Amino acid sequence: MPKSTFFNLKKEKRARIIEAAGQEFSQQPLYSASINNIIKTAKIPRGSFYQYFEDLPDLYGYYFSLILENIQEDLIDSVYKDDGDIFKAVQEYASIYLEDILAGPHHNFYKNFFLGANIAIQSKKGGHGPGFDVYHSERLNQLRVRLKKVVNWKQLRVENEDDQNALQQLIMMIFFHSFANYFVHAIDSQKHPEDVLKEIKRNLSWLEFGVRRMEEQ
């Protein structure tokens, strides 16, 4: 996680560093990103970088957490509008999120994120080369608590908080896995944007209703 010295910086300087990180991570996946490019764009000494972050994956995890915060906040709004139906909300939010991934400000970051992960896995490096941990900020933790509060758990067969956490993780795995498939296969024209929504809808349906065919009575 970022060091306290980073959070003690003036807001403008923190924003400049994050913007520089976003530019680099949008041009390169983590395993080939350069600290030199980031500090040059942010106009900070190399020594200062290590006063703010342990290493490059540390900064990457923090940058990714900022994106996750926006995703969580938008998802909460969707669940609230759908009266707590998390499955319906995720399907509807996927259409909005797809537009952001294809044409939004983080398009190139997502492309490098998913393609970088795929290349690292194929080369048996694991993760994103050196790997990274998502920074669990106070805001991100608060958003996760809010999400639990707006979901109508009475509609679902969940018994406790562990069940809630497990279900949320499964849903998000389905969500991100479908987008990863798009970026991995879009290059050779095997995947189209509409296929992402179909895949998410199918997999969520399997999770919500089961995959076994019911015998006719």
Automatic annotation (TrEMBL):
Pfam family, one: TetR_C_19
Recorded superkingdom: Bacteria
Any coiled-coil regions, as ranges: none
DNA-binding region: 34-53
Domain called HTH tetR-type: residue spans: 11-71
Keywords: DNA-binding
MF terms (GO), sorted A to Z: DNA binding
InterPro entries (UniProt xref): Homeodomain-like_sf, HTH-type_Tx_Regulator, HTH_TetR
Designated name of the protein: TetR/AcrR family transcriptional regulator
Organism in which the protein naturally occurs: Pediococcus stilesii
Origin organism lineage: Bacteria, Bacillati, Bacillota, Bacilli, Lactobacillales
